[in-house]
Request: fold
Amino acid sequence: MEEVNKANYEPQNVYLENKLLSVIERENYEVKALLDAIYKQYGYDFRHYAKSSLKRRIANCMAREKKTYISELIPCILHDPYFFDRFLQDMSITVTSMFRDPDLFKILRQQVIPKLSTYPAINIWHAGCATGEEVYSMAIMLEEAGLLVRSRIYATDYNNQSLKIAEAGTYPLENMREFSENYHQSGGMNSFSDYFKTDNNSATFNQNLRDKITFAHHNLMKDGVFAQMNFVLCRNVLIYFDQILQDRALNILNESLIPRGFLMLGDRESIEFSKVADDFEHFVKRSRIFRKKLF
Ligand SMILES: C[S@@+](CC[C@H](N)C(=O)[O-])C[C@H]1O[C@@H](n2cnc3c(N)ncnc32)[C@H](O)[C@@H]1O
Reply:
């Protein structure tokens, strides 16, 4: 065999023109590597989140952590669970309010709650409840309809810090004025202050409301169904998902509902074009309230 003449051998590093990645390509490559690392390490599949908002959230995280390149986040994700907790906070947009969009809540009072009243027991699931304001709004409406006593409300999110706030049911007192206005616009007839106790600068919702709510961690990327629900609300959550993840989440929501159960989405969300579209009919079309078909 002919021996390689090492003295004459030179490595041939060939740099082809046009082979360098563009800035955008490099960024996409780094984002993909980061999301793969998160998925492998923690099972959270952000690969199916809408890319534009995902990149904005990653940029916020880099600014806070003083990183220049997206790929610098990867070792932090892999080796530091506390870092991942902070990253999850960056990823999760928790904007919410009580009786947010009061006209919608009026429709719930007038059209959905009377239908729910025909069931002996009422199970409701708020998926992506953030800090819980929407959930307390629901509990108050059920109380006023005389239905809270036979209702059980499940409220879930993948953001544990938000869930802690929701479970405590304590909010800044300064928020109560806006919540009260929304409550009355939604058709509330009582004094809103009857529903909470104040202490210094905070307000805590009454125990009888909180007793009816079970808060729990649930991740729409990977967790399963809540069986036998009469009403599922998942508002302003799917908007952050791509079509694949929307299909997964909608499938879970669909499977959780009894036949003739109600589904409510946010005003920029729909089941149209999803795999469950044929399983539902519109109940109040402009309010994104759907009703599951019998078969
Ligand atoms: C904008 S808030 C919506 C809150 C409330 N539903 C409303 O409309 O007022 C979106 C919530 O969805 C949650 N979320 C996002 N992705 C999630 C997932 N994969 N599983 C569970 N919750 C998720 C976020 O943590 C955040 O609390």
Summary: The mean pLDDT is 93. Residues 52 and 78 are 24 Å apart (CA to CA).
